Amino acid sequence: MEVTKKKPDSFGLFLSHVKEKMFNLNILKIFLLDLTYLLALPAMACCFLWVMNEAYYRAFGRFKRKAVICTGVVGVTVHEVSHALMASLWGMYVNKIVFFNFDPESKTLGYVNYSYNPRSLIHCLGIVFTGFAPLIVGACLVYFIFDYSGLPNFNSYFQYSYQGSIQETINAGFLESVTNWLSDLYVSFNSPLDVLFFLLCLMIGVHSTPSRADLRGAMRGSFITLSFLFSLWYLMRLFPSYTTTYMRIFEGWMVDFGAAIIQLALISSVFAFSLTIVGLVLSVKKPTTFSN
Q1: Which of 53, 57, 59 has its CA nearest to residue 280?
Q2: Where would you find the membrane-spanning parts of this chain (predicted)?
Q3: How far apart are CA 262 and CA 12, in angstroms?
Q4: Bridge-partner residues for 115, per DSSP?
Q5: Are 208 and 50 a contacting pair, CB within 8 Å?
């Protein structure tokens, strides 16, 4: 009786390989650590900027309108244009845009009204990016303004190493990178034009944080967006032999983008804190009255 060996099922081997990798705790641990390190620093920087901005808005009291107009003509306009631009890029229809309109009753400085299809995966991803558009576009604008004016960008001091993991890169002298960058930035103003460009960046930064309405809108598609990104990244971790090049490029790009957000948050937080001090001083000072 002749016995023939059954050829191994290539698809079955592939599935067993996937199953083995899928539940590899070491891969999962590296994946979660990288994700945490990648998101934590920009998220904390943005939260701190949001707190400083709220303090700035509240500190001016009766002078709030004048203060907001000084920074908002540029900052709020960029904020709303960012929403409209991002919504259009994701295929959503912009119904109305108000660039700047200080309304103390509704507590809005401007708004964008757009339509989307809740059944569309593209639109579900798009509403998240549209909600965070002021932060994304603001960080990119500040980066390009710094680059154009010759001011040092933070990502030049905080570079991603393709030889290590993200957490190794961030742990390797992050605070030292911040200190060196701020020191060089301080001595980089060589002309009044440099100061003007820097003030422009500050006005963009103090109005770059998403509003409560922006966050509520972004939450509608956050689960689908996070699931999509997590799955994509995890699959890249599962098959490093096929995706190493793309993964390193993607991770390096994300680190650079995170550095741009941290840069925006750092300079804008210092500016907002300074404005808060000025606002508190003006609010405490009683208006002068003249009596006959």
Answers
A1: 59
A2: 30-52, 121-146, 185-206, 218-237, 257-282
A3: 46
A4: 93
A5: no
Global pTM reads 0.78
Q: Cα-flanking dihedrals φ and ψ of residue 103, to 5°?
A: -125, 100
Kindly indicate the confidence band of residue 140, based on its pLDDT and cuts at 50, 70 and 90: very high
Structure tokens at 258: 């995170």
Model pLDDT, residue 292: 47
Taking the mean position of all CA atoms in its chain, how far away is CA 204? 13
Bigger pLDDT: 282 or 91? 91
Q: Which residue has the tokens 């793309």?
A: 246
Tell me the two tokens of residue 23: 């539940």
**From CA 252, how far away is CA 170, in angstroms rounded?**
12
Q: Is 198 in contact with 153 (CB distance < 8 Å)?
A: no
Please tell me the total number of residues recorded for the chain in this structure: 292
Q: What is 80-139 written as a DSSP string?
A: HHHHHHHHHHTT-EEEEEES---BTTTTBS-EEEEE--TT-HHHHHHHHHHHTHHHHHHH
DSSP string, 138-196: HHHHHHHHHHHHTPPPGGGTS---TTS-HHHHHHTTHHHHHHHHHHHHHT---SHHHHH
Nearest to 129 by CA among 170, 181, 88: 88
Query: Average pLDDT, stretch 229-242?
Result: 71
**Cα–Cα distance for residue pair 111/81, rounded to 1 Å:** 9
- DSSP reduced 3-state for 275: helix
Which helix (H) or strand (E) element contains residue 33?
helix 25-59
Q: Which residues contact 197 (CB under 8 A, 6 or more apart)?
A: 145, 146, 148, 149, 151
